[in-house]
Amino acid sequence: MISIPVSFLLAALFLGLLLSVVFWRGLPRIARLCFALLLALLVLETVFVGLRFAFGIFSFLPLQRVLPLWIAPLAFLSFLSLTEALERLRKSFLFHGVIASVAAMLVLFPQEARVLPDVVIALSFTAYAVLLARHWHRGPDELSQIPVQLTGRWHRIEAVVLATMIATLIVDGGIAVLFAHSEDRAAAWLVSLATLGLITTVAAVLMWVNLGAKGGLRAAARPALNGGNEKIVQKAHSVLVEQELFRDTGLTATRLARRVGVPDRELSRAINAGKGQSVSQFVNHLRVEEAARLLTTTDAPATQVMEKAGFLTRSNFYREFQKRYGMPPGDYRKKMQAAD
User: Fold this and answer.
1) 252: which strand partners?
2) 336: closest CA among 302, 305, 298?
3) What is the model's pTM?
4) 101 φ, ψ to 5°?
5) What's the rounded Cα separation, in Å, for the pair 338 and 296?
6) Which domain holds residue 170?
7) 201 and 233, same domain (yes or no)
């Protein structure tokens, strides 16, 4: 049956992502732990699904029913860990851990007292999809615990996770209806097709996330500029330039806000009001200007220019430079040299 290779292929994909996250040093340690645990649970869940629908092995059915009750909160907490420091996360971990434990007990109760598992799982995914949507809606600057040049990418990843949770709700609803009408074979095929679709979607999304979306996924509402916001923007610009903080590839919105002396969200609102940009765009603007200066005044190769200007990856450097000057760094250097 097609569900065997497809399920295990998806499990292998999740395993590869798990290994990538573990060694991604741009993420805080607690975030790496959360995402690694989330992906580990996804590996187990897809394996159990394959065993159930392909081999008819139901020994792991209780675990298969319980794991989604931990997957949904972990998805939310993983992105929350990109927003808040560990000290502020402890209460959230405890609160959502208790909720997941209670939901798991409801599912694992004896048959005569057990709440319908599909209903409990659907409620869990719905609740955490709403929480994740609210978190995503705050914008990329909310992800203050990671380098500013990574916030746009992880904001897009968050949107993908949110869309996947919603799609899962729809597919699981269809599977439940098929089982209710004793259409076990049709349910197995729906699982297979959904899994194949998820594999295709993940592959396409990985390319999209790496390429980036020009201007972001949505245009944030620009608040009115006032004197306080203007002073914050000026202070942020001074800190970045005079202290050459923009050169730091590990710079986060939280660190910049501390240097400026304001909370993260106040800094984000001020820059959005004054410049119509996110914090990452504000910082990258300075980095691109410095890269252009280095390309014009030095013979350093593009890789060194990228590093000196503060860019973490070559793809991000070329994308931001192209957006600002309408050409790659090499072409820009040739144009400036010809003009001289």
Assistant:
1) 147
2) 298
3) 0.76
4) -65, -45
5) 11
6) 3-211
7) no
